[in-house]
Task: structure prediction
Amino acid sequence: MNHVQITKSTRHSKIAGDFGEALVLYWLSKHGFECARVDHTGIDLIAHRPDTTEVMGISVKSRTRTKGTEGESVTIPAKDFEKIQAACAAFGCSPYLAVVVDAASAIKVLVTSLAHFLELCPRSKSASYWKMSKHCVTKYEHDPQVMAFRLSTQIRRWWE
Result:
């Protein structure tokens, strides 16, 4: 089965956000990070890097892309940056951004510091755009300051 039409539920944005947070939390934990999900304006996760003393405050942005929209950018509203920085200041952690995009046959996850994200995706008055074209994703995956992983997905049988 190659293609199943995606029709998102009315709660899909919330469910996708929770899934993205859980996926990043799982991956960090699997790789030795002490981490927790937090319910705080600006950040979703707090993680202690096992190889340093750094504590990361991570804002997770999750998107589901339907067929034909897989390469669309992830928009990060400008107001989110102040919220991330304020939360990290309150908790004494370094601001990070994680982007989770479920597109076609792979779920792509990219994690980087907020400072590096803003170097890659300069902020306009209203937003920054994390470009998700094949070329840009390949560039991010080769950037030593961007942590990246992909989960391959394949539908074997599903309702149509």
About this structure: The CA atoms of residues 40 and 53 lie 22 Å apart. Strands lie at 34-40, 43-48, 55-65, 74-77, 94-103, 106-113, 127-130, 147-152. The radius of gyration is 16 Å.
